[in-house]
Structures are given as structure tokens and as C-alpha cells.
Amino acid sequence: MEVQSAEFIASYPKVGACPKDGRPEFAFIGRSNVGKSSLINMLTHKGLAKVSGTPGKTRLLNFFLINHSWYLVDLPGYGYARVSKSQQRNLQGMITSYFREREELISAFVLIDSTIPPTKIDLDFINTFGELEVPFVIVFTKTDRIGKDTITKNIDLFMAELSKTWETLPPYFISSAEKRIGRTELLEYIAKWSKPGKKE
Length: 200
Ligand SMILES: Nc1nc2c(ncn2[C@@H]2O[C@H](COP(=O)(O)OP(=O)(O)O)[C@@H](O)[C@H]2O)c(=O)[nH]1
Ligand SMILES: [Mg+2]
What we know:
Blueprint: E1 6-12, E2 25-30, H1 36-44, H2 49-53, E3 61-66, E4 70-74, H3 85-101, E5 105-113, H4 120-132, E6 136-141, H5 148-162, E7 172-174, H6 183-194
Parallel strand pairs: 2-4, 2-5, 5-6, 6-7
Antiparallel strand pairs: 1-3, 3-4
């Protein structure tokens, strides 16, 4: 799939306000600073994530329409140190409701920083998907940043941690926004799942 068009639609404060046109949807989420904006910009070429990076939008559900056919949803990053406990709870509630209620969601892309060993915050976040029954894949980011051996070790460690709680491991992708790695694979994955009648 090539991205022909990508437009910002709107930012919503809750799942109930999101578009109801039934288009398939793919959501991107990860710890703040994981490289989410960079990855979204790499995928779409359009500098889209600047929109959701502007103050105020980082705590909303940001919708982009791609090729007039599917939505890319930029979700708030989790694990902000700078917001208060109650703000964090609100954010958590919005994200959980989104995942619990959003029927249009085909798959979540959970971004994990490949340059560091597994973190509890990422593992805890992914484990909530078990209860919510959200289909997801993992995208390891910033793989250009340090040596290949360390990246491979971090990825192996992460998948080993997941296998402690998951019987079947999710697919994962390797990416670098810097070196434009993983773009084709991610877009192909989305193309495969966003075709009508190919949902299961
Ligand atoms: N080397 C390298 N740096 C990256 C990559 N992706 C993001 N970064 C850097 O990581 C920082 C956070 O990226 P950003 O996309 O803003 O993260 P976000 O907070 O998750 O949206 C920035 O300084 C980026 O330049 C990558 O693939 N390679
Ligand atoms: Mg960002």
C-alpha cells in the first residue's frame, strides 16, 4: 500500500465522540518519547504527527484519515511523569474505554523502545490487553540507534517477558524512523487487515 492521502480529521476527548462511519481503524500507542510521532510521520510522509504533538492534543484521541479508507489513531502516550495522578487516571480511563468500546479497531500498534531492556510500565500496559481482548502487534522503535546485538538482546528479552503471561506471542515489527526501516512491512500489514471481508 502506498499512502496517497492523509488528512487530520479531529481530536476527540472520549471514545463516544469518535467517527461512526465504520471505517477500519489502527491505533498507535506507546510510552511518551518512544518515537510515535516520528513513526507516524515516516509511515504517512505527511508530517501529520506535528498536529497531535501540539500542546493540548497529546491528551486526546487524534484521528487521521488515510487514503480515504482507514483511520490512523494517534493515542496519548502513557507514563508521563509530568502529569498529576488524577490527570493520569483520566487519561488511563479514556484509553481503556477506547480499547474496550471501539469496534472499528482492527489492531493496536504498541511501540516499544528497542534501545532499552524491557520496562514494567510497557509490560503492564500490554498485559491489560488480555482482559480487554484487543488485537495488537508490537513495533520496536529506534533500531538504528545502538548496536544490532543489543537491539536483538532487548527484543528477545521483551518477548521472553511477554511469554510469561501470553500463551501466543503477538507479531512484532522492527522499525527506525531515522533509517526508514519497517515502513513497507507495517503498511502491508495494515493493507491486509483493512480490506473488507478480511477481518478474521
Ligand atoms: N535514532 C533515532 N531516533 C529516533 C527515532 N524515532 C524517534 N527518535 C527520536 O526520539 C525522540 C522522541 O521521538 P518522538 O517521535 O517525538 O516520540 P513520541 O513522544 O513518542 O512522539 C526524538 O528526539 C526523535 O528524534 C528513530 O527511529 N531513530
Ligand atoms: Mg509525539
